[in-house]
Design brief:
Layout (H helix, E strand, L loop, with lengths): L12 H22 L2 H8 L3 H7 L3 H15 L8 H18 L2 H10 L5 H28 L9 H18 L7 H12 L3
Length: 192
């Protein structure tokens, strides 16, 4: 059975990219609270209607932009668990610093009662995919014998994901080779 043709013009990938790039720039410059759909439309050179055809809310737009950032800079796996985890942590830190992610996390938590969609989408589009990728990487390493067969994968993922937030909130400098030191400690914890 043939599908009915879609009505209207197909969406432009260039417009899609312009909208998400503008949203990222404004998130980084102004934060979530000050970012507006009007501002994103102006920055992207599109109408608000073009944005609302793609995203149902400001929370939907902002988290879609963060998801694009996470995907666009994703390191290619090398097969070397230590190197791959280090690259993942480096990307997490770079992306977090690019868009002031800690302030966004604070906003998500502060607005949880009033705008629960923001935290839900933030979890679905940024946190859960990275956690799933880490579980997959560590699970494959456990299955192939590269880490302890009894390694607690969920605890390792928590340690990995919490390392940046803890260091950032402490106010202490990250220092040279911070990512490598964190991954080395994690590898010792999982018997790698």
């Amino acid at each position: 059975m043939a599908l009915a043709p879609r009505r209207g013009r197909p969406r432009s990938p260039e417009v899609d990219a312009a909208i998400l790039d503008a949203a990222l720039r404004l998130l980084a410059a102004e934060g979530y609270a000050r970012m507006s759909v009007d501002g994103v439309a102006g920055e992207a050179g599109v109408s608000k209607a073009a944005i609302y055809l793609r995203y149902r809310s400001k929370a939907d737009l902002a988290t879609a932009a963060l998801a694009r950032l996470r995907e666009s800079g994703r390191p290619e796996p090398t097969g070397d668990l230590r190197a791959d985890l280090t690259a993942q942590l480096r990307q997490l830190r770079t992306n977090a610093e690019r868009v002031s992610a800690m302030a966004l996390v604070g906003t998500c938590l502060t607005e949880e009662q009033h705008t629960p969609e923001l935290l839900t989408l933030f979890r679905e589009r940024t946190l859960q995919p990275r956690r799933a990728l880490l579980r997959e990487m560590l699970g494959a390493a456990r299955e192939s014998g590269r880490i302890d067969p009894d390694a607690d994968i969920d605890a390792a993922v928590d340690l990995f994901m919490g390392a940046y937030q803890t260091r950032y909130l402490s106010g202490e400098p990250f220092g040279e080779r911070w990512e490598e030191r964190v991954v080395d400690a994690l590898m010792r914890a999982v018997g790698g």
